[in-house]
Amino acid sequence: MEFGHPYAILRPVRSGNTFEETIEHLLQAIKLGLFPRGEKLPPERDLALHLGVSRATLRDALAELQRAGYLEIRRGRYGGTYILGSPRLAEDGETPLDPEACQDVLVFRSVVEPAAAALAATADLSAPARQHLQSCLTDVQQADESTYRTRDARFHIAVAELAGSPSLVAAVADVRARASALLDQIPLLSTNLEHSNAQHGALAEAILHGDPVRAESLMRNHLEGTASLLRGFLP
């Protein structure tokens, strides 16, 4: 397994709604930071092949995401499709948090992510696996406010990757993307970020030391902190 590669997490399109699902999968990858701001997307041929769609469908999806402000298509010698990031809603047009959607995300996270942490701690981790988790931990701990949430998401997905189940990775990536959409609607609080990073460090240590009980407990506690913030911002 190649750790950290976007294609390990970016799922192929499976339904008959190829255009819509291509948009969904690309947006999820952008929001999760699999394709970081400022970087160039893989070549169209490779990306279309991985997604299992035609290049025409992929181009249509990329053009829509360009119009929406997520991508920039450049021409010339250094041309390609570059990531601009996730546009924020205008302050006066933001949609308030939906209590039912929020609760659904929180419940699902509370099931899959502690399980992923426990499984990661019981896994026979290779040197690349350990290095991948440590690298993602360093990235989130060094992130500023503009990059924190995508790097935070990447750390959580890395935990799931270590568990060794592609289905679990897909589940964590999906729920983390939904959680990120909710978190984007509330402010970043510096004290919370410091606390979260301390929890990330302790969680990584428990996994790397093979302590599944502690890893699961730490993840549950960490998620409850996020849940408290989201509940606090509910209308």
What gyration radius follows from the Cα positions, in whole Å?
18 Å
Shape: globular
- How are the strands of the biggest sheet laid out side by side? 1-2
SSE topology string = HHHEEHHHHHH
Largest sheet: 2 strands, antiparallel
CATH topology title of the largest domain: Four Helix Bundle (Hemerythrin (Met), subunit A)
Q: Indicate the percent of residues in helices.
A: 55-70%
CATH superfamily of the largest domain: GntR ligand-binding domain-like
The number of domains is 2
- Given the helix and strand composition, which structural class is it? mainly alpha
Number of helices: 9
The amount of beta strand, in percent, is under 5%
- How far is the N terminus from the C terminus? 43 Å
Question: For this structure, what is the CATH class of the largest domain?
Answer: Mainly Alpha
Pfam families: FCD (PF07729), GntR (PF00392)
GO molecular function: DNA binding; DNA-binding transcription factor activity
Keywords: DNA-binding, Transcription, Transcription regulation
InterPro entries: GntR_C (IPR011711), TF_FadR/GntR_C (IPR008920), Tscrpt_reg_HTH_GntR (IPR000524), WH-like_DNA-bd_sf (IPR036388), WH_DNA-bd_sf (IPR036390)
